[in-house]
Design a protein that fits this description.
Layout (H helix, E strand, L loop, with lengths): L11 H54 L14 E4 L6 E7 L7 E9 L2 E6 L6 E5 L3 E9 L4 E2 L10 E10 L3 E8 L2
Length: about 180
């Protein structure tokens, strides 16, 4: 008697098992790829926010560099002013400007409901948005006697030595920057 010929190929059960394994691996790969894309999107968004923050800090630092040097170790109230309520503070800087005939320019940083804006006499008073409405800004000035004030000139006197800006945004949290004043 001859042995029955052996069949080659795959049985239906083997084929179904292979397809099931392939389907599970495909779903896992898709989920991993999807998570990777979501992470990349979040990273790009956060990176854009940090870049905008760095640009704003650089602009403010450049503007503060235009402040006149203090006379007799004292900052004049006309060169630097900080006023308004905490939710709507205004930082006003009178800086040197070669672009204006008077040699001076007035720069205003204004916290409003739609975010932080910047304006300049040199720019014809046009307003530019620095941050959107989801950013909250708080300014403080450190005086030479160690007090922090949210308005300057201060009725109690004192010479401003540093300017602090705290930026709060939901995804970034609170970021504080401190600049030494001339």
């Amino acid at each position: 008697m001859r042995p029955a010929p052996r069949q080659s190929g795959m049985t239906l059960i083997e084929l179904l098992v292979a397809m099931s394994v392939l389907a599970v691996l495909s779903v896992m790969g898709y989920k991993a790829f999807s998570a990777l894309l979501i992470s990349r999107e979040h990273l790009m968004s956060t990176s854009t926010q940090w870049i905008a923050l760095a640009r704003a800090f650089r602009q403010i630092e450049r503007d503060l560099g235009g402040l006149p040097l203090p006379d007799a170790e004292r900052m004049t109230p006309s060169a630097l002013r900080l006023d308004g309520e905490p939710a709507a503070q205004r930082l006003i800087l009178t800086v040197f400007s070669a672009a204006r005939a008077s040699g001076r320019d007035i720069l205003v940083y204004q916290q409003q409901s739609d975010g932080l804006s910047w304006s300049s006499l040199r720019a014809g008073g046009a307003t530019e948005h620095v941050f959107g409405a989801d950013y909250r800004i708080r300014w403080r000035i450190l005086l030479d006697d160690g007090r922090w004030v949210m308005h300057w000139p201060d009725a109690n006197g004192g010479v401003p030595r540093a300017l602090e800006m705290q930026v709060t945004q939901n995804s970034l949290g609170a970021v504080t920057r401190l600049w030494s004043l001339p």
